[in-house]
From TrEMBL:
Residues 1-102 form the STAS domain. The lineage of its organism: Bacteria, Bacillati, Actinomycetota, Actinomycetes, Propionibacteriales. CDD domains: STAS_anti-anti-sigma_factors. This is STAS domain-containing protein.
Amino acid sequence: MEITADGSTLVLHGAFDVRSTREVRDAINACLAGPDGEVVIDMSDVSTIDVTALRLLAVATRRAWLSGHHLTVRNPGPAVRRMAHLARLAHAIEVERVAATA
């Protein structure tokens, strides 16, 4: 897993699984501690995800909300969305809504 930070946007690259949750959690916490308190996690380059990583996103979303901040997931691929539904965590993770183009 590689994480690229662009302001308050974290771009994840590769497999997001139990081996990378600590690194992602630390990056999320650093962004939430910043002046903006907003975090966008771009997952367009995430190839696979496991339940541990999804739980991390769900917990981080809740903690951000409870502290008055905001965490949003951007561009989750079909595999990520499918796993979120199978793990019954899709409702606990806020996914950025993108306007449909004609």
